Amino acid sequence: MTRTLLPVSWYIDPAAYQRDRQRIFARNWALFGPEAGLREPRSWRADTVNGWPLFVIRGDDGILRGFHNVCRHRAAKLLADGTGACARIVCPYHAWTYDLTGALRKAPNFGPEDALDLAAHGLFPVRVEIWNELVFVCLDDEAPGLAAWLGSLPALCDEFPKPADLALDGGFSAEGDCNWKAYCENTVEGYHLPTVHRRLNAAVDRANTQIEAYDEGRLVVFHVTYAGGDTTLRGNQGIWFYRFPGFQGVAGARSFKAERIEPISPTRMKLTNWSWFASLSPEEKADSIAWNRQITREDMGICETVQRNFEAGVYHEGVLSPLQEGHLARLQALVLDAIDGAGGHAS
């Protein structure tokens, strides 16, 4: 029997939230979104990821670059959240103008020509890499490359259709009143399926479904065999995966799902979903998207009850099932190591 490893205060305190952002999320890759819509020169997308306003933009040279969405002058936001295209980036506050490589080109009416070193005031860069038509960003120059970070995941996904073989068709975002760690702990165990996810549990052949850890526990994969009528929608087999700290998805015979999990406050988290489909009728697609939303609501709903009881002050420590919750214990150990241990880069 293993006791829970993390103090309850780590799910509540503002200081713990900031530690998680700086020591965990800033040092790992994060899913930014689909490459679709970013293939043409001058196209851009802006979003807030793990509390940092960011944007990615395709240069005239064809390179996709990422930047903090903050002007070097007075910290104004440069691009509104969403998508667009531009030949240059002009700050809406004082018209400081940057080219698509992030270099500052003009600072109108700032002062004498030699008052400002333009070359020293380019945009703050963010690393950008692409896997499987998904754009990822990383704030840490010393973190491993995306391929190393993904580890075993690409090989595990190889037997299933890729987003390039499917059609991007839908997505959603949802916010929940729970700490991101509580939500991800729920993600890596199947103990709750029979009670929280009745339809999903009925669709899974549990006798032929295994949960495996890869890459020292940073990747947890459910190797799922489906049963019953839902094989029409999902195929006979698939994988559900979670890569610490905030990337999860589903790969199957007829669909692919990618999701970003992120903290937005000490006691709130956000999930953003993108889904790709093939050979599904409009009714089947609508049902699949609705089912994805339902699963998210069910997970958030139970995690919100956990969060409320954390905040109530009665619960201080729990116990973990050696049969059902080993991956949860490993996730907590990863958090503990990042915060109190070496705090090194996740490889």
Automatic annotation (TrEMBL):
User: Which coenzymes or cofactors are required?
Assistant: Fe cation
Which InterPro entries is this protein grouped with? ARHD_Rieske_2Fe_2S, Rieske_2Fe-2S, Rieske_2Fe-2S_sf, Ring_hydroxy_dOase_asu_C_dom, Rng_hydr_dOase-A
* Domain spans labelled Rieske: 29-137
Please verify whether the record's keywords include Hydrolase.
no
Signal peptide limits: none
The cross-references to CDD domains, in alphabetical order and at most eight, read: Rieske_RO_Alpha_N
Which terms does the record give in the GO molecular function aspect?
2 iron, 2 sulfur cluster binding; iron ion binding; oxidoreductase activity
> Which SUPFAM superfamilies did the record assign?
Bet v1-like, ISP domain
Which Pfam families did the record assign? Rieske, Ring_hydroxyl_A
Keywords annotated in UniProt: 2Fe-2S, Iron, Iron-sulfur, Metal-binding, NAD, Oxidoreductase
Protein name listed in UniProt: (2Fe-2S)-binding protein
Q: Which organism is it from?
A: Hypericibacter adhaerens
